[in-house]
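Hello,

Following up on my earlier ticket. Below are the two sequence lines again, exactly as submitted.
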Amino acid sequence: SQTIHQWPATLVQPVGSPLSLECTVEGTSNPNLYWYRQAAGRGLQLLFYSIGIDQISSEVPQNLSASRPQDRQFILSSKKLLLSDSGFYLCAWSVPTPFRGHWNNEQFFGPGTRLTVL
Amino acid sequence: GIQVEQSPPDLILQEGANSTLRCNFSDSVNNLQWFHQNPWGQLINLFYIPSGTKQNGRLSATTVATERYSLLYISSSQTTDSGVYFCAVDLGGGGADGLTFGKGTHLIIQP
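Thanks for your patience. The regenerated structure is below:
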């Protein structure tokens, strides 16, 4: 079965410091990978998605970047954190499968990283 | 982009009551998912339901794609059902789309 891991679980960082959050998926190959952020306890926003190694698409201009150095590893980074980067960061995976004329693209989420920037 | 609206935003019920949560979306969608976010923040997959009706124990969901809405039914509520319920959709297009989430329904089940 497939599992998804994120670390660290929680992180407190000062403004201006760098950031690296990691997400890994086990039990599947060639997944689509996604980074979402949830701020203020409600609503998730897509930040980045990736359909393959070194193939990253950004949905929202921001202070963050993403990389996919291996098939099942997705990294979220920042060179200098801002207060507004605080939030709950969730990684997700899917394996799109054609089904009856559409794409079954059910997504599954990791446990998340709670980031506080002070 | 596509708009996803959930109602009600907040709902307080007594244990044993039934509830219906609604999700409206502004465009034709390829996928629709319902999630439950537990107190630790974990998103639990409830249903993948781009159309039709599905049931899983006390929970069921119906999506009427032609009318652009989905309903989540919770019967005989338990305190463990408390949390935030999210509806999320994607437009499709080869399977490379992220999900657009509604703002959620915050459900509190009182003993």
